[in-house]
Amino acid sequence: MRLKRVYNKDAPKKEWIEVKEQDKDGNEVKRLVPPVVGVIIQHAGPRQNFSPNLVYIAQGEGWMTLAGTELTITGQNRTLVYDILRVPGRYEDGTINYYECVLKEG
Questions:
Q1: Residues 6+ apart with CB under 8 A from 77
Q2: Can you say how many angstroms the Cα of residue 5 is from the centroid of all Cα atoms in its chain?
Q3: Which residues in 68-95 are b (16+ Cβ under 10 Å) and which e?
Q4: CA distance 16 to 8
Q5: 27 is in which domain, residue-wise?
Q6: Which of 13, 63, 71, 72 is the most exposed place for a label (fewest CB within 10 A)?
Q7: How many C-beta atoms lie closer than 10 Å to residue 39's C-beta?
Q8: d(C-alpha 52, C-alpha 97), whole Å
Q9: Which helix (H) or strand (E) holds 62?
Q10: How far is residue 54's CA from residue 4's CA, in Å, rounded to a whole number?
Q11: How many CB atoms lie within 10 A of CB 66?
């Protein structure tokens, strides 16, 4: 899956988020990032694995929802609905650390 985040660059500076990164020398660098207002879906395959961290962040940014056995990505250009086959946890064939999904609509 390829997504492009859409930022509100006109938001007041107090709403911008401080992000910590490392420069090429390994030093910590801080920068301000405008708030995310959505995503543009550039490419999506029929099967996807979503990490719990991505799901958590996307829900916080408002472009992904979980409802029952469905995971929905609401992009500015289209909406995708995935059926969740398995959630993170232990299974007979091993442990998975992601949401295993198959495209239902989109």
A1: 40, 41
A2: 9
A3: eeebbbbbeeeebbbebeebeeeeeeee
A4: 9
A5: 2-105
A6: 13
A7: 20
A8: 7
A9: none
A10: 14
A11: 15
Pairing, β 99-105 against β 89-91: unpaired
Does position 93 have pLDDT exceeding 90, yes or no? no
Q: Total structural domains in the chain?
A: 1
Only one residue has tokens 């056995």, namely 69
Q: What does each C-alpha distance from 106 to 19, 41, 79, 81 come to in angstroms? A: 32, 11, 6, 6
Structure tokens at 81: 């609905």
Distance (Å, whole) CA 35 – CA 13: 10
Query: 83, 68 in Cβ contact below 8 A?
Result: no
pTM for the full model?
0.84
Rounded Cα distance, 38 and 60, in Å: 11
For the chain, how big is the Rg over CA atoms in Å?
16
Report the distance separating Cα 53 and Cα 82, nearest Å. 17
